[in-house]
Amino acid sequence: MNTKIQVTVWNEFRHEKSNPKVASIYPEGMHTTIANFLGKEADYELRTATLDEPEHGLDGEVLSHTDVLIWWGHMAHGEVSDAIVEKVKTRVLEGMGLIVLHSGHYAKIFKALLGTSCSLKWRESTDKERLWNTMPSHPILQGIGDYFEIPQEEMYGEPFGIPQPDEQLLISWFTGGEVFRSGATWTRGHGKIFYFRPGHETYPTYHQAEVQKIITNAVRWARPNVCIPDNCPNSPALEPLPEDPEADNRPTIGHK
Amino acid sequence: MNTKIQVTVWNEFRHEKSNPKVASIYPEGMHTTIANFLGKEADYELRTATLDEPEHGLDGEVLSHTDVLIWWGHMAHGEVSDAIVEKVKTRVLEGMGLIVLHSGHYAKIFKALLGTSCSLKWRESTDKERLWNTMPSHPILQGIGDYFEIPQEEMYGEPFGIPQPDEQLLISWFTGGEVFRSGATWTRGHGKIFYFRPGHETYPTYHQAEVQKIITNAVRWARPNVCIPDNCPNSPALEPLPEDPEADNRPTIGHK
Amino acid sequence: MNTKIQVTVWNEFRHEKSNPKVASIYPEGMHTTIANFLGKEADYELRTATLDEPEHGLDGEVLSHTDVLIWWGHMAHGEVSDAIVEKVKTRVLEGMGLIVLHSGHYAKIFKALLGTSCSLKWRESTDKERLWNTMPSHPILQGIGDYFEIPQEEMYGEPFGIPQPDEQLLISWFTGGEVFRSGATWTRGHGKIFYFRPGHETYPTYHQAEVQKIITNAVRWARPNVCIPDNCPNSPALEPLPEDPEADNRPTIGHK
Amino acid sequence: MNTKIQVTVWNEFRHEKSNPKVASIYPEGMHTTIANFLGKEADYELRTATLDEPEHGLDGEVLSHTDVLIWWGHMAHGEVSDAIVEKVKTRVLEGMGLIVLHSGHYAKIFKALLGTSCSLKWRESTDKERLWNTMPSHPILQGIGDYFEIPQEEMYGEPFGIPQPDEQLLISWFTGGEVFRSGATWTRGHGKIFYFRPGHETYPTYHQAEVQKIITNAVRWARPNVCIPDNCPNSPALEPLPEDPEADNRPTIGHK
Questions:
Q1: Which of B82, D39, D75, D203 is the least buried, fewest Cβ under 10 Å from its Cβ?
Q2: Which of C235, C243, C248 to mutate to test the interface with D (most CBs of D within 10 A)?
Q3: Residue B134: which of D134, D158, D177 has the nearest Cβ?
Q4: Are the beta carbons of B132 and D171 separated by less than 8 Å?
Q5: Is D5-115+182-229 assigned to CATH 3.40.30.10?
Q6: pTM of the model
Q7: Looking at the predicted structure, is the pLDDT value of residue D253 above 60?
């Protein structure tokens, strides 16, 4: 029996093919960079999947063997099949962990699970980002101090169109004057969700130690305790019920 | 200018046409009963809408003039058009209040906003339901004491597949041995959502004073403060930014 | 019967007496400045109270007639009597609203209600503060746009030692590189609590329009719906109970 | 180095000495029963402490070596020293886990951390309690099915005077017609808190397998990730600040 944590890193994998700068930072794609640093954990087993594979690399076999799914998408959110999104959602609700990165704030799967717009302010520029640790006791932030900095990143600013997070982990300061809730968690069904802001494709963000540490911690935090398929059972009484006062003239037409 | 709270009561309106018992309780449909008791409030202006009307009675004109939408559906959730659901969701996110009743737990609009299964246990039987007030200071529960009882209701039982509520208002006790979170609120975007459990079609639940009081209170609580359409703006810096160290060899391909 | 909202503004009122700069900004004390702008609301009735009055100006008569209490303290938190803190806490739990300003983060009453350290980073300096609106639909933020700025303020930085807020309203950006959850709400018992960060005594913060607007809104938001004194009742069964199998040999010693 | 989870079980230990029925169920005290079943876990190291020991058995040495503290108290809450309560609170805020059982809802330490009344309805009677699992994915509920029953227990009923829980784990149904939030969690500072309702002293509740399972799981869930003492640092700027426009005529009186 395989007791390792099964991690699938999903990447749109388009910028890397069309933009030489991105290709120079992530020659084999961001998914490979992420899988490589996660693969250093002895108890993680890594797989990758990308948009242009059949079923986006997320067929039933892959999904049912994924404990934690990591998601990066941006320019092609609209090309992700609604049927696959529905299958991923089903897996999260039955227990699979989900880590959504950066521009994945607009991924269909993230919006479907949160139920909100997930909109924000943004600017591609020369901002420095400083991420403040607002919950130092959280498993995802172990090894991270009071704050860390990313020398250059795309700016994301408030208001961020999310439901109030279950746990507020990181808040970013940007040179240009904005703030952003950069790390936050939610539970949906039996699955745990972590959103982590950094990771613009034109910067080497996923090569940075603190970013790698947080994603690595998040995988362990998000692993499922259960796999409980959805059901809505007709359920017999556990205690005696009164007689039905209208038992004789009750309509016989069922309607559930 | 109309400063009344514009309320639209939406009802599937099918059980009333096919089931004589339901028709005897709600001769003009549940929506009419609900609109009638709400209409006694001097500051409420009532409209109704039903599944079989064009656009389910929820065209753009109606939706844009609705402050609070009440939703009852059951046997025909699947017949509600996805396009209408999307429009209703957009209105909630920009500020419209939404009150979801009873079997509306499985309405497309409720599941789309909460992001979860919204499944539960259920039993049509002779249970008495006693609803306990867990937040007596809440505006929705003013005029309700420690608890109230509904002589006979369908049972809904935990676990209820919802995200942790923002506010936990009511918990039900059922004769047959179950419990249920019968009143709860969430914020999604700029809109407020209230789920209220009672209202099985074969019982005269919406004729009961406490039930009417709670729905009446909920309308006032759910009225919007704002109407803010979704946007995701490119946003100029408010503070001076550093020079771009790579300004000369930056790729020119835009990607947002 | 008085149907106005009864507001009591409490101020430590010490800096104004010892520091000429503070005295020049608030010649009659911060409480008077705050009471004056709140007093412009036709439905607010204002009272002030200060540390050096008997019972700190908060005797039973005053407290029982206060709907919303505003609290500013800093250099003399330790001089506030524990007995008065206990009385204020009792009033909040039974329904009174509480608005805690700036250095009141370390007031005994705030720490007693939140249960945490309420610690933070701080710096008296030349920072500009920009407060971002993270919940534009909230009643407290009506009339406030995406953000507003305070030209010079003391810096407060994360981590802020508070329980996860019920509602996250404002996040501050500071020139020096920090962020802070500057507006947040909690419910404790039947009372509503709003913490609002700005208001260092050496700056004219409470003369600024946006700051006045937020405090004015907060009073209306925090007004009580109920006044429910604490009780812990022995409560008879509402449904038939089984016979006690050990009725005959049950010990007679009471223990509650 | 000791890498086991250090657990201290604290018990008031009075009922066992004065009430023969309680003594017959827990001859060596509830703390011993609880320590014995927890001691079966290979990675737990157990200690007990009781009210009548010096410093209630909770001197600095014990507290600083406790990862998770379990608390049962009832008839003598008032005899617990405020100084010890303050030390326990400090330890929770810096990271120690706390599990509060049954009548501990009224313990000074629980009320000090939650900030509310913690009041409830109650009845010593012949009720059966059925605890419904509202969050089956939670680590504390692993091995517990949809529900479990305790044949006879004291009734606790809503409203329960607690802040909205971070996680809602269990809701109880009682024969007599009440419901109660029987399992819930909060974070305070860096520490995790779990309240678990069952455990009236005249019933053999802590001998029941499901109850033992939940407390055993809760210890592992509550163990600290960090130990962070409180501080409130004066913090230098990380970014350049503007000149102070009033540098020359700034008052020199410090006030923090």
A1: B82
A2: C235
A3: D158
A4: no
A5: no
A6: 0.96
A7: no
Contacts of D136 in chain B (CB under 8 A): 159
What is d(CA A115, CA B111) in angstroms, rounded to the nearest whole number?
Answer: 8
Q: Does A152 touch chain C (CB under 8 A)?
A: no
Stronger pLDDT, D246 or C58, i.e. the higher one: C58
Q: Is C226 on the interface with B (CB under 8 A)?
A: yes
CA dihedral C17, C20, C24, C29 (to 10 degrees): -20
Q: Which residues of B touch C136 (CB under 8 A)?
A: 190, 226, 228
The CATH code of domain C5-118+182-229 reads 3.40.50.880
Tokens 């007679």 belong to C252
Mean pLDDT of C245-255: 48
Q: Which residues of chain B have pLDDT under 70?
A: 1-2, 245-256
B239 with A177: Cβ contact below 8 A = yes
Is residue B7 within 8 A of residue B49, CB to CB? The reply is: no
Residue B214 and residue B141 in contact, taking contact as beta carbons nearer than 8 Å = yes
The 3-state DSSP class for residue A100 equals strand
Chain B residues within an 8 Å CB radius of D174: 173
Which residue of C lies nearest to D247 if distances are taken between CA atoms? C126
pLDDT at A245: 64
Query: CB-based contacts of D135: which residues, under 8 Å, 6+ apart?
Result: B159, D141, D167, D168, D169
A235 neighbourhood in chain D, CB within 8 Å? none
CATH code, residues B5-118+183-230:
3.40.50.880
How far apart are the C-alpha atoms of B212 and D116, rounded to whole Å?
31
CA-to-CA separations, A134 to A137, A145, A169, A194, C194, in angstroms, rounded: 9, 10, 5, 15, 19
Asked whether the predicted pLDDT for residue C252 surpasses 90, the reply is no
Q: Which residue numbers in chain A have pLDDT < 70?
A: 1-2, 245-256
**Which pLDDT belongs to residue C256?**
38
Burial class (CB in 10 A: 0-12, 13-18, 19+), B247: exposed
The bridge status of strand A68-72 relative to strand A97-101 is: parallel
Alpha carbon distance B6, B47 (integer Å): 8
Name the nearest CA neighbour of B222 among B140, B162, B141, B145.
B140
| Residue where the block lists tokens 């157990």 | D46
The per-residue pLDDT for D137 is: 98
CB D73 within 8 A of CB D9: no
Query: CB–CB of A126 and B155 under 8 A?
Result: no
Q: B116 and B161 in contact (C-beta within 8 Å)?
A: yes
Q: Is B157 an interface residue toward A (CB < 8 Å)? A: yes
Give me the count of residues in chain A: 256
Q: What is the pLDDT of residues A153-162, one digit of tens each?
A: 999 999 999 9
**Residue spans per domain, chain C:** 5-118+182-229
Please check whether residue A168 touches B, CB under 8 A.
no
Q: Which secondary-structure segment (H or E) carries C61?
A: helix C60-64
For residue A246, what pLDDT is reported?
64
In this prediction, residue A253 carries a pLDDT of 39
Q: d(Cα B73, Cα B111) in Å, to the nearest integer? A: 13
pLDDT for position C254: 36
pLDDT recorded at residue A255: 38
Residues of D in contact with C203 (CB under 8 A): none
C194-203 tens-digit pLDDT: 999 999 999 9
Q: Do the Cβ atoms of D136 and A190 come closer than 8 Å? A: yes
Closest residue in A to D148 (Cα–Cα): A238
Does D126 sit within 8 Å of C234, measured CB to CB?
no
What mean pLDDT, rounded, does chain C reach?
Answer: 95
What CATH number was assigned to the domain covering residues A5-118+182-230?
3.40.50.880
Cβ–Cβ contacts within 10 Å for residue D253, how many? 12
**Cα-based distances in Å from C60 to A236, C8, C95, C190:** 54, 13, 15, 19
Question: Tokens in use for C56?
Answer: 């700190």
